[in-house]
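Example for tutorial group B:
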């Protein structure tokens, strides 16, 4: 059964799931009435897209599957549907995290796969596989009835080590000691919890296939006596056996004949019981599983995306400042005391040589976000022209000698055999290295331009997104963390055969440290962008964290004030904190040193210094590729 999204929900998983829930419950209910107990799972087919290496568009159609859910007659259907949706959303999140740059284009459909539920039932004797029998870890009772579970539980209680303990006659006199009540033999796997409760036991059941042991059912009970069972099968039936020695079954004893301690949920081995107990705190949160390591020869992974080694030639660092306009009213249970209104910004563009492409751009005035977007899009047009043009290669005699004498590709590090290619910087024409032709084709210059803002996700993005929504000629893409916060968002536009995009990112996601602390780790000579824009000045004054009277500055008129406000004006109401006398003296020093005339000039000085400082502090730790 397929459920299709509507036009409104085809790009929103939450909206889509909300739409199909009533239909899904109704269909499952119909199947239960027809078949009795059923098991089902859901599969979502979706289309994702991202920019390809050549500047085009790459698409993928993954499928995301939920866990299998079992619905018995009388169960409440609604309990399992949201659990399935949550599992699918987890799979989608994992796909986006690992896929690097994938963005949802559309949801195709949700497929409901449903069948009659026939749980595993164990009955009469089956011969153990030789490899399993040789471990001498399992007691296989030779019963001809369907009560193998009962005989295993009695054998565990008696703990008989007689050489003929496989005979069922040892256990029949004790049959009444095991309570089954309404549970009928052969006992299916889904009835094990009832048997546990009736007999005050903790029962784990494991399967065996292709020489591998794996968990089928792991008890949630903690303090009760533990019984481990092995469920083996042939073409006709299944059969419970009693596991007497888990260490023998899952592995060998150590050279000191010490037993290993195993987690029954994931079958991971531990040397000490204390370590196992610590592990169980986390493993118990997940479903039972078996960890299988890769085969020899397949146990290495290698970096393949060589084009991601290419540093991006242009990066824009930006910063916004706002007025805190007083505004007292209530909205529901929220009391609003002020609103933030962007009043200015500054940005600097860093080129391939690590220097600023042009002087720092700074603005103070109304409609600051609109003004920023207009300017930044103009910058994008200029940079796009550079990114989409290729400067021919220029080879010096030394470059030619290096190319001919190279023995290994500088990208994949493998030997250069046969055809080789000259790799060069498309922006400068400078020769870089000898590569395989295939590596050279992959090593393309990205057409992405990062726009880096500090704390974008929690602040600046809310200002910018209001303006982005007005744009019509750009493709807008987001990678969300919630409905209101994004990991990144981008504006893309095609130039000839290339798609060039502005990618807005939050520097705090790469280095979650304050700008002040990052600056303290660098010496003043590292801040070449500040030196370029403030020549012959003592830039150490600008490297110290600036102080600004945010709450005091509640209107554009205050930019005309010709003196620094009092120290009390720097207090922040929400935190109840202000600035120290030393900080205030520093603000006065900056005012006097740069001969500032009013608060507008003080604002511009602080804003102008922030974006290059952010750039120098972050770029010393982060390389955008």
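The residue assignment follows.
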């Amino acid at each position: 059964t397929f459920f299709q999204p509507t036009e409104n929900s085809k790009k929103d998983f939450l909206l889509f799931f909300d739409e199909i829930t009533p239909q899904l419950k109704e269909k499952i209910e119909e199947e239960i009435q027809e078949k009795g107990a059923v098991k089902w799972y859901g599969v979502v087919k979706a289309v994702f897209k991202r920019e390809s290496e050549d500047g085009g568009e790459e698409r993928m159609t993954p499928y995301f599957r939920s866990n299998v859910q079992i619905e018995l007659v009388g169960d409440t259907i609604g309990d399992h549907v949201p659990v399935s949706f949550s599992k699918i959303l987890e799979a989608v999140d994992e796909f986006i995290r690992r896929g690097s740059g994938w963005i949802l284009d559309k949801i195709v459909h949700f497929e409901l796969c449903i069948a009659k539920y026939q749980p595993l039932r164990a009955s009469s004797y089956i011969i153990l596989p030789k490899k399993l029998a040789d471990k001498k870890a399992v007691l296989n009772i030779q019963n001809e009835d369907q009560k193998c579970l009962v005989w295993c539980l009695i054998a565990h209680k008696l703990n008989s080590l007689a050489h003929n303990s496989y005979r069922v006659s040892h256990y029949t006199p004790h049959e009444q000691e095991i309570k089954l009540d309404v549970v009928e033999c052969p006992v299916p796997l889904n009835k094990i919890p009832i048997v546990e409760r009736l007999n005050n036991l903790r029962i784990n059941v494991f399967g065996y296939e292709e020489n591998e042991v794996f968990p089928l059912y792991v008890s949630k009970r903690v303090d009760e006596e533990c019984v481990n069972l092995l469920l083996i099968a042939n073409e006709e039936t299944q059969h419970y056996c009693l596991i007497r020695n888990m260490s023998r079954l899952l592995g060998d004893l150590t050279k000191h004949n010490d037993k290993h301690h195993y987690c029954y949920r994931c079958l991971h081995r531990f040397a000490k019981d204390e370590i196992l107990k610590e592990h169980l705190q986390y493993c118990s949160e997940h479903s039972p599983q078996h960890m299988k390591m890769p085969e020899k020869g397949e146990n290495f992974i290698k970096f393949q995306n060589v084009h991601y080694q290419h540093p991006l030639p242009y990066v824009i660092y930006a910063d916004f400042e706002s007025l805190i306009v007083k505004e007292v009213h209530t909205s529901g249970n929220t009391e609003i005391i002020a609103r933030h209104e962007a009043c200015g910004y500054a940005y600097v563009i860093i080129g391939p040589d690590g220097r600023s492409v042009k002087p720092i751009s700074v603005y103070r005035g109304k409609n600051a976000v609109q003004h920023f977007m207009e300017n930044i899009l103009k910058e994008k047009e200029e940079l796009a022209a550079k990114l989409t043009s290729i400067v021919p290669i220029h080879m010096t005699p030394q470059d030619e000698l290096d190319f001919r004498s190279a023995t290994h590709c500088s990208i994949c590090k493998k030997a250069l055999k046969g055809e080789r290619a000259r790799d060069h910087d498309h922006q400068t024409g400078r020769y870089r290295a000898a590569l395989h032709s295939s590596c050279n084709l992959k090593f393309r210059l990205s057409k992405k331009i990062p726009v880096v803002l500090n704390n974008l996700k929690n602040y600046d993005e809310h200002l910018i997104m209001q303006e982005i929504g007005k744009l019509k000629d750009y493709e807008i893409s987001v990678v969300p963390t919630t409905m209101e916060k994004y990991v990144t968002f981008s504006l893309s536009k095609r130039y000839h055969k290339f798609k060039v995009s502005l990618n807005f990112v939050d520097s705090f996601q790469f280095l979650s440290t304050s700008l002040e602390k990052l600056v303290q780790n660098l010496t003043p000579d590292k801040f070449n962008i500040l030196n370029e824009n403030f020549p012959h000045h003592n830039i150490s004054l600008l490297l110290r964290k600036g102080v600004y009277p945010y709450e005091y500055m509640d209107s554009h008129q205050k930019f005309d004030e010709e003196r620094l406000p009092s120290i009390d004006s720097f207090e922040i109401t929400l935190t109840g904190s202000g600035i120290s006398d030393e900080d205030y003296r520093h603000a006065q020093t900056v005012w006097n040193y740069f001969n500032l005339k009013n608060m507008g000039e003080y604002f511009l000085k602080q804003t102008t210094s922030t974006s290059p400082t952010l750039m120098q502090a972050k770029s010393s730790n982060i390389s955008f590729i």
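The CA atoms of residues 465 and 489 lie 9 Å apart. Compare this with the pattern of hydrophobic and polar residues in the output above.
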